Amino acid sequence: MTHPLVFIDGDQGTTGLQIHERLHGRADLRLLTLPEAERKNPQRRAEAINACDIAILCLPDEPARQAAASIVNPAVRVIDASSAHRTDAGWVYGFPEMNAQQGRLIAQARRVSNPGCYPTGAIALLGPLVQAGLVPADYPVTVHAVSGYSGGGRASVDAYEGPDGPQGPAFQLYGLGLAHKHTPEIEKHAGLTQRPVFVPAYGAFRQGIVLTVPLQLRLLPAGVDAQRLHDCLHRHYAGAAHVQVAAPEDAAGHTHLDPQALNGTNDLRLAVYGNAQHGQVLLTAVFDNLGKGASGAAVQNLDLMLEAMG
User: Fold this and answer.
1) Per DSSP, what are the bridge partners of residue 147?
2) Which residues are catalytic (predicted)?
């Protein structure tokens, strides 16, 4: 049987390059890439995407929509790493660990939208808790996250790694208009009924994320505490290959979180920190914004689709 042909459209960006690197040398698939002179040629890109078995779109939102619209071959399957289709009901959301059925849905889907980096952590923490009724769907959620500068794309990488030396700031908060494009994605897939406040930031390190969600116990159902929140997450991700939930005794010994701790992996590490005296809890997620937050997740979804193809 001929090995499936995978076309990476946009393989020169930060996400595309890492996907290409992760797939390079694999014997169970064939990679289709376009010569540099043809990468921006709409006709050649349309020919390539219609000739492949699975296309991975590593493009800005509008070009991703155009690429998807150019598909006329009904056999072509797509993984879109942009944010163009993440709240589109016609696309399967590509977070396999989100629930017990999601991996099967991804494996069988024609159209898969890869999660955003920040939403991956927020949804992983909030989704199971909202579903279990431990966090009300209308809770006034605040999400704060600090990512490596690679999350800003090539322009941001060049600012820190360009020939003239680092030009980017040590730390920068952004999204001050509270209209970041990831917010609707978090709201929908975490099961929230009210828009969360999302506060993103970049630090002067290349990749990695620490994301936090603070909770006030007085606003949660009676009897909910840090232990119950931990137990819910632990049960939800039991057996998940790429999601770890820190044991309470381990979390109690933590004094800081390193955003780069899981760089180069497709892993996601969750933890629950509580202060019973003050009635407060902090949910945290650590992962690689270019791993589980982008290219690693895309390859994980690709593998699910390939496995279903036999």
Assistant:
1) 202, 209
2) 117
Using one digit for the tens of pLDDT, what is the confidence trace for 193-214? 999 999 999 999 999 999 999 9
| Residues 6+ positions from 182 with CB-CB distance below 8 Å | 83, 116, 118, 119, 198, 200
Write down the number of H helices and E strands in the chain. 10, 13
Instruction: With cut-offs at 50, 70 and 90, classify the pLDDT of residue 155.
Output: confident
Q: How far apart are CA 142 and CA 197, in angstroms?
A: 5
Catalytic residues: 117
Q: Averaged over 177-206, what is the pLDDT?
A: 97
Paired with 113 in beta bridges are 80, 93
Strands 77-80 and 142-148: unpaired
- In angstroms, rounded to a whole number, what is the distance separating the alpha carbons of residues 49 and 273? 46
d(CA 207, CA 70): 33
Predicted structure pTM score:
0.95
- Helix-, strand-, coil-residue percentages of the chain, each rounded to 5: 35, 20, 40
CA distance 145 to 293: 13
The one-letter amino acid code at 214 reads P
The number of C-alpha atoms within 13 Å of 123 and in the hemisphere containing its C-beta is: 26
Residue 250 clears pLDDT 90, i.e. is over it: yes
For residue 102, the SS3 value is: helix
Average pLDDT over residues 231-243: 97
